[in-house]
């Protein structure tokens, strides 16, 4: 944890900042404080100064921070957190340049800061912590890998209950239950179970629809372990697949496999995306693949880098990303296949072990 704070202090100096104010509030979570010092609560400020770091929270978390927080001094606020800022002498220097998280700080809270620190120069910042967190260390990769393993095992178990007549909601509930039994704290996101025509919805969250024989069922879900996320998608057929289903499925599998083979350090997100997108486009389904190829995962389910035509992120060793092409045919259904991979110098390492060949239940 201390090494992460030291890296951030170097970045602050390069950006002419005297302090970075990070917050973790119930209404605007960013996970950045957890990344830097280990705090898992939902009410805290972290002040990162050139040679110091101070974690400020309330009495409810006194015992928690004693156990969790590393690399930062711990202070319990007597009033609301932002009201306490004026008590820190380090922050009352005239024209002190204090960075804040522009993308996450509510306007109302920014007003509180200005009242408490009228002599400070408040500077909006973006991406400072993310520039460190985008590359995962060995401990982070191990946690993601455990979350992936939980999701893989849960997928194998859920195949036993998918059958005609069961609802998407029931499948989602059982899947989330199995992940919890295997050690996941929470699902990574609201579980997507989309069957039949609903499989054409890339984010078709589970509904009351009953699964029918002959339908595709797309399952997009993830587990969390020690705060880190996994994100897996598999598509199965209930019964025997027809010729069109096999054609679409095998095309997506071909594209997804090609993406896993292509991804490596030194390429940019759009390079990998284009490689995969060209395969689908040449087969005549380019317009039916309307989202990016993938995204980073970590303490948040969607992080950098992005594998997308809209991104220019450079892939580097130990980034963890998803590779998830799909084809969606309105009124008929769709297929998406997704793995979590670790970028290496020469390629990528696929974390998932769950079967990717077409499963006919």
How would you portray this structure in words?
This protein is α+β, with helices and mostly antiparallel strands. The protein has two domains: 2-133, Creatinase/prolidase N-terminal domain (Creatine Amidinohydrolase, Chain A, domain 1, 3-Layer(aba) Sandwich); 138-360, Creatinase/methionine aminopeptidase superfamily (Creatine Amidinohydrolase), CATH 3.90.230.10. Helices cover 30% and strands 23% of the residues. It contains nine helices and 19 strands. It has helices spanning 2-14, 32-37, 62-68, 107-116, 130-133, 138-158, 168-181, 243-262, 269-282, and strands at residues 19-25, 43-49, 52-57, 73-76, 97-101, 121-125, 192-195, 216-221, 224-225, 228-229, 232-237, 294-296, 303-307, 320-323, 326-329, 333-336, 339-343, 348-350, 359-360. The strands form six sheets. A six-stranded mixed sheet has the order 4-3-2-1-5-6. Helix 6 crosses helix 7 and helix 8 packs antiparallel against helix 9 (269-282). The protein is elongated.
- Averaged pLDDT: 96
Largest β-sheet summary: 6 strands, mixed
Biggest sheet strand order reads 4-3-2-1-5-6
Are there runs of 5+ residues with pLDDT below 50, and where?
Answer: none
The name of the CATH topology of the largest domain is Creatine Amidinohydrolase
Radius of gyration of CA atoms, rounded to a whole number: 23 Å
Q: Estimate percent helicity.
A: 25-40%
SS element count, helices:
9
Distance between the termini: 46 Å
Helices and strands, in order, run as HEHEEHEEHEHHHEEEEEHHEEEEEEEE
Number of domains in the coordinates? 2
The class by helix and strand makeup works out as alpha+beta
What proportion of the residues form beta strands (DSSP E)? 15-25%
CATH architecture tag of the largest domain: Alpha-Beta Complex
